[in-house]
Amino acid sequence: MKIIAELCQNHNGDINTLKDMVVKSAESGADIVKIQSIKANSLTERKEFESFRKYSDEYKRLASLELSIDDELEFIHTAKANNVIPMTTIFSPNHYDYYNSLGYDYLKLSGYSMEAFDYGLKLDKFNFKHLVFSTSSLTLDEIKQCIDNLQGIDFTILHCVCLYPTPVEKVNLSSIEYLKTLHDKVGFSDHSNNLLISKQAILQGIDMLERHFTILSKEKTRDGQVSINPQELRQLNQFRKYSREQQFRIINSFNDKQKFNHTYYKRRLQW
Questions:
Q1: Residue 211's closest CA among 239, 237, 233?
Q2: Per-residue pLDDT, 168
Q3: 3 state DSSP class of 148
């Protein structure tokens, strides 16, 4: 099982903070470090932004978080120098060709980008070692279509709920079991503020766990409330090394309010 430290926008656009995050992630047990290759123009050109977030304000915020190409190359170099896998998320198919040749080992496509992705044109030139896509905004039919389209590519599906933070009753970890019937590599992108949820997913036998990660105080980054720190990452790294029996005992040592065999875990699939 691999752990992704999702550095997301927690670097606040500063390359030195980003490099420090890579080092701390590696020291704390991450296997993969991921950023988001943000391009403000492509993210804010969608009409739906106008309905819930003012375009000009969002553009300024995203533009301040953009990394230069030199920054991204430095990120890749720092990751490899610290023996962790460099990964990025791209949000538009228009950026695929460029990032396909930049030197990233892993690529993630967000759920809402999958529908627009031109598989026939792009995947015959796939240079990444592994592809990850999250279910987030996808319907069940769309997930199945993505799986069909990705045949011949090494990929992992991440169960994901796009609520930040995700309330316990919305986590729906039973989806992981269903996704395993569709594909052999399934993981979890955890946006909760609860380590126990991640531990339960590990006990369920996921192949990959993604957690937002920060070295700054939670109030200093937009994603701080759903981000874990180095100490918490070390806890997850230690937990995954335990046997299933040990993991089960640890989870069941919590009181009834904290345990996972209650409402949200028993919920059926919502697709």
A1: 233
A2: 86
A3: helix
Helix ranges (DSSP H) in 107-217: 111-114, 119-122, 140-149, 174-180, 195-203
Residue 178 is predicted with a pLDDT of: 94
Q: How many domains does the chain have?
A: 1
C-alpha to C-alpha distances, 188 to 95, 157, 242, 251, nearest whole angstrom: 25, 8, 19, 18
Q: What is the pLDDT of residue 42?
A: 57
Number of Cβ within a 10 Å radius of residue 125: 10
Task: Provide block-wise average pLDDT over 10 residues at a time, the chain (271 residues).
Answer: 92 90 97 83 53 61 76 95 94 72 85 56 72 86 87 91 86 93 96 92 96 87 83 97 93 65 42 40
> Which residue carries 């806890």 as its tokens?
235
What pLDDT is attached to residue 37?
Answer: 80
Q: How far apart are CA 20 and CA 172, in angstroms?
A: 34
Q: What is the extent of the structural domain holding 152?
A: 2-266
For 97, the enclosing helix (H) or strand (E) is helix 96-100
Assign residue 26 the CATH number of its domain.
Answer: 3.20.20.70
Q: How many helices (H) and strands (E) does the chain have?
A: 14, 9
138 close to 111: Cβ distance less than 8 angstroms: yes
DSSP-derived letter for residue 239 is H
Q: Which helix (H) or strand (E) holds 251?
A: helix 244-252
Helix-, strand-, coil-residue percentages of the chain, each rounded to 5: 45, 15, 35
Helix axes 195-203, 244-252, angle to 10 degrees: 140
The pLDDT value given to residue 12: 80
The structure tokens 């875990």 sit at 265
3-state secondary structure of 226: helix
Cα gap 254→48, rounded to integer Å: 42
Note whether residue 271 is domain-resident. Answer: no
